[in-house]
Design brief:
Distance between the termini: 91 Å
Number of helices: 5
Protein name: Myelin-oligodendrocyte glycoprotein isoform X4
Organism: Bos indicus
Keywords: Membrane, Signal, Transmembrane, Transmembrane helix
């Protein structure tokens, strides 16, 4: 139970709970201080601390990236410069022809291979049939 408690809570909370338990051990019921408010605090505090930590990490990352944003905007200006957007005609032709001709050539190759194979099987069966008669 102690290892589960220490792994799920921040490092200072188990010692505070232990101190609180020692202070209340003089009373007859050692768990009299556990009321719904304390249970909500125990349930919500680790999540709240985690959210604050993640928020601070994102804030630090945002501050680090803020300086790099202007450089990226300059790169975009250079990227969409009309001089760099001019594409040679042969590249456009290549990008149009290759996706059309590639599958067409593959289809022709597969058709020829299948035709030769089936024709070879047919000729083999014919030669067997003619040798029997």
């Amino acid at each position: 139970m102690a290892s589960l408690l220490s792994s799920s809570l921040p490092s200072c909370l188990p010692s505070l709970l232990f101190l609180l338990l020692q202070l209340t051990s003089s009373s007859a019921d050692p768990f009299y201080w556990i009321n719904p408010g304390v249970l909500v605090l125990i349930a919500v505090l680790p999540v709240l601390l985690l959210q604050i930590t993640v928020g601070l990490v994102f804030l630090c990352l945002q501050r680090r990236l803020r300086g790099k944003l202007w450089a990226e905007i300059e790169n975009l200006h250079r990227t969409f410069d009309p001089h760099f957007l001019m594409v040679p005609c042969w590249k456009i032709t290549l990008f149009v022809i290759v996706p059309v001709l590639g599958p067409l050539v593959a289809l022709i190759i597969c058709y020829n291979w299948l035709h030769r194979r089936l024709a070879g099987q047919f000729l083999e069966e014919l030669s067997k049939f003619s040798s029997l008669s």
